[in-house]
Amino acid sequence: MTRDTKSILLVGVGGQGIIRASDILSVALMHAGFDVKKSEVHGMAQRGGCVSSHVRYGEKVYSPLAKEGGVDILLSFEKLETLRYLHYLRNGGTIIMNDAEILPPAVNLGEKSYPSGIYERIKTAFPGVVSIDAYAVARQEGDIRMANTVMLGVLSARLDIDESVWETVFTESFPGKIAELNLQAFKHARHA
Amino acid sequence: MRAFLSGNEAIARGAYECGVTFAAAYPGTPSTEITENFARYEGVYAEWAPNEKVALEVCIGAALAGIRAMAVMKHVGVNVAADPLFTVSYTGIEGGLVIVTADDPSMHSSQNEQDNRNYARFAKVPMLEPGDSQEAKEFVKHAFEISERFDTPVFLRSVTRLSHSKSIVSLDDPVGGSDGPRIRHDREKYVMVPAMARLRRGEVETRMTALREYAEGFSENRIEMNNPSVGIIAAGVAYNYAKDVYPHYSFLKLGMVNPLPEELIRRFAADVETLYIVEELDPFIEDQVRAMGITVTGKERLPAMNEFNPGIVEKAFTENREPSESAVAESGIPARPPNLCPGCPHRGLFYAAGRLGCFVTGDIGCYTLSFMKPLEGIDSCICMGASVGMAHGMSKALGDDGKGKVIGVIGDSTFIHSGITPLLNAAYNRSNAVTVICDNRTTAMTGMQEHPGTGRTLQGEETVRLDFARLAGALGVENVRIVDPLNIQETKTVLKEELAKDGPSLVVASSPCALLKMKKSEMESCYTIDTTACTGCKVCIGLGCPAISWRSFETYGIPVGGKKENKKQKGVAVIDALLCTGCSLCQQVCTFDAITEVRKNDA
Lengths: 192, 603
Hints:
Chain A is an alpha/beta fold. Helices cover 41% and strands 22% of the residues of chain A. In chain A, strand 4 (71-76), helix 2 (79-85) and strand 5 form a beta-alpha-beta unit.
């Protein structure tokens, strides 16, 4: 297990459960024995604005913020937000992207258009980009609100954390029945 | 035991662990969660005060009764509390008194980015600045010890990136605190009439001299000697950014930023070849180090505005750094600003008010977001409470020409914070401006906190509820109207009637926050657009509701079963059933009966 500080950047739109997901991820990393820091901005972000959460872990972490061009994994909950934060990713970094479009106000008003072909554009520069429809998977699992759990499941397959750690963290993070549902969705996404 | 805590949670925990039993605050991002979390601990008292001045005065009272008290506010809150601050600096305290100021570099949720370290120097009050959650918890304890040892209020400064970052904290059991409350008369110390204030003024200088000496040996002012070619002086989060990119350089980490340890700084400067100062916002440390005659590099390389990150610190001191590679061009990405929520009652108010041709002075709260297109609901925003006084001033300046042309809009919590005295002023000086209170029964922007208008306290007790209409009557405002802002026609009519009257009017636009409604019950119905009846006129789009979007035929094609009403029609509006709360505003503005109510499950 390498102990150099690694950075994961979670991005998306207010209301998608990004802060909850980054909390669960951070606590899992803590239980796995890492030093962890994370940072995001609350407040205005709740009202449908963009949300970004930095999670950094390693032997000893100083800054809670990653630098541009220094992020190892970009976990994006919305396609346009992937583009917005792409410059944070290091060369050869990993992108996991939810295949979802949430229209910004200017697009809703018909003033601007939502960029087309985002996946294709990203794929050219990052051939390994993983794109999943987390909403569809979450709906199949029984609740669309578990899309953030599905995203975590896909991410977890790329992290060196025992499944038992995730089980503990999910059990601590949700009440009984909901923990079970989330854990099931998480595992399906993790092993898909 | 270890926990993963935000800076705010850690400050609350630190206060609990060192026997603080009293806190008062007014909510303000990024400080709000400190008081919310503290209030949940056993055996403590915590309250929302109407504003920061009151919160600090309440805490001064508690500290004079001999217990440890903590006043919590965002940076601009200290402006409001500045009056008592500058004089409690003279009187000192009985029990420890700590003022937490949470600054907001980059203005994530604020109207300015003032550097409150300046208040520490200005008011001659010591200030500690932690850099992560573990330090935040420990520094609260240091702050109370210093407060009691040196008979002084103490500042604890946080910034957004500390308050809203999380890191691992080891928890301790609560210990210590005061010997319990008592009454002790000491008029020479606490009655600040000129004769006694002059005596205390000298005490302040003596205290600051003693604190300067203390700072030299303070455990959190420490030198980390490493490669001596470069030495970096830094405090708080900036230390962590610098340490991240320059782990091999030497550091002087300052836990106390006022007063500065001059001898320690001189010693460090002498031991390194080049000295950098890495600090966000003002050259606060830098100016003082330069005044010591020491050569440093700081603001000529680093910005004096906005928060830092490791990238900014790295770029500042690295020559000829290659530009970071960005594989995909990212220009022209539509911005995603925060917006009023679906179902927000403010939307109805501003839609109605926006059609009256008035200048609308705005205030601080969710409704500030209405300034954006398409509502463009307010024309100014300065600070808490400013809308009411500004509307009156503008109305007076315009004279007869301004009659019916000026509205001041303010939220319920903001009105209680700073709107009451300007409304009294408007009544006293016979204003023609109309004041509107957007009463959504909560402090919404900061995350749904109680206030004197909600009838509940921070710790969940039922209490008296402020009646805005009766208050306005008592202040001398004769014209008081209550409207439902989710009824556009009614709201427009009432505003028009009040604008036509002589003298001050108050309109209370009363409807609970959409988030508050959502908490209480699942909305059962929502609205849907009949795409065969929609003519693509975009009137509903003009509400700026996040649940309504425009689907152009060019991009999305003509919907199944839909048709083009005429050659000019370019698309239709659609409603996202998941987001719609059933407020009916869009149905009210649709002139083609294309919008109908449906049960959520059928949508």
